[in-house]
Amino acid sequence: MSVSPDGSIIYGGKAGSLTTSEGAWTFGTQGSDGIDWNTQLNGNANGQAVQMQITNGKLYALNKVSGHWYVRQNATWVDVGTTAPVEGVLPTPTAITLSPASATMADNAPAGTLIATATVTMSDGSQFKGTLTTSDTNFFAISGHNIITARGFTSADDGAHSTVITASQGGQSFSIYLSI
Hints:
Elements: E1 9-11, E2 18-20, E3 23-30, E4 37-41, E5 44-49, E6 51-55, E7 58-63, E8 68-73, E9 76-81, E10 93-99, E11 114-122, E12 131-134, E13 140-143, E14 146-149, E15 162-169, E16 172-179
Antiparallel strand pairs: 1-6, 2-3, 3-4, 4-5, 6-7, 7-8, 8-9, 10-11, 11-14, 12-15, 13-14, 15-16
């Protein structure tokens, strides 16, 4: 099964199909709203839209009633807002959530102690595959998506310490302030 190339588009009410790793996408009958058409994956109803297209290797669908675009991700539709997908525009970080949201460290915490785990939200709902960095490498280090202590702490380290955590991907970045 050959995947449809970027730029492939089909419209509700017209013949055509798109192929993704999930299978063949077509339009069925017009939806009950009288505007959108029933999208079908391998002949089975799977949402409503007026247009489906492949952009940057992903399947997008436009629901005319809501005015929102949806991207197919992990066998489900994810709402990506009202802006049409643009060919060649890579997904970018739009938010960072730290868990726990605030942390305290003992003054004798050893090097590598977990401070927080970062979850990065991407503009198209995709998985973050970029890099995390910290502005203060004396106290903070990055290990995967974890912010950890860069070295062992001593009582001389008592007091607040802060850093800026930055997520970078696709030539864009998003930053958040972290203080312990």
